[in-house]
Amino acid sequence: GGLGDVLGGLPPAMAANGHRVMTVSPRYDQYKDAWDTSVLVEIEIGGRVETVRFFHCYKRGVDRVFVDHPLFLEKVWGKTGSKIYGPRTGVDYMDNQFRFRLLCQAALEAPRVLNLNSNKYFSGPYGDDVLFIANDWHTALLPCYLKTIYKPKGIYKNAKVAFCIHNIAYQGRFPFSDFSLLDLPDNFKGSFDFIDGYDKPIKGRKINWMKAGILESDRVVTVSPYYAKELVSGEDKGVELDNIIHRTGITGIVNGMDVQEWNPATDKYLDVKYDNTTVLDAKPLLKEALQAEVGLPVDRNIPVFGFIGRLEE
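== Granule-bound starch synthase ==
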């Protein structure tokens, strides 16, 4: 959805501004252009060691890095049967906390261990002076592990974390007893501690990953100035995190548009290509084609409205 769009479009725009940019995502599929770097990292989770591999491709100035682990691949069968978060809507996979913790810890390793020379201006590992942009609850543990595993050893001492909220409705709420599974010191408990009025996944006290991500990061940002206002406007709009966001502050930066992907002069999905000089000729023809395709009366004088927004229950 929107998160995929941002991760597709924002990094190339940042690279075009002269930054060295890496994205880190789970390897949910056998992506045909991402090659095995043969770099393996051992990550300790709950007293056992998990090995992840990094796959990599370089596109439009961005190092695209994918974290390979059997638990990411096994949930997804080809590009169409993908069930990334749970077996069905509103239900979590039992190992979600484990999988997304693995992503957070792997993302902290990637800039240090990957020796990437994709670009003539930048070479070698990214090093320690990095800004992590953590997106939504799945990456909310990243600032916590940055503070507990790396900073005490003098690694990433200047690194910062910006936490970006794309959808406040999904927060990563789990039973409070699960805090012990995260291997974090007790002084982090307050950042996770959460009480709500729901019985999902259990009644009473919970941990809330997004709450911790908001409190433990250096800056909190979101996808538009309007959404930033909405999130602090009340308990329903902030989905019970409005007070926490009030405390940290939040910056709304409007989601941009990838002008390469959405260029009507080159868009392969348009029957009639156009630019700013031919737009008035092309649009009525495209409107008629759309009306015909979806079974509406074909009439170029009837207005057609497009709505881009959230479709959910």
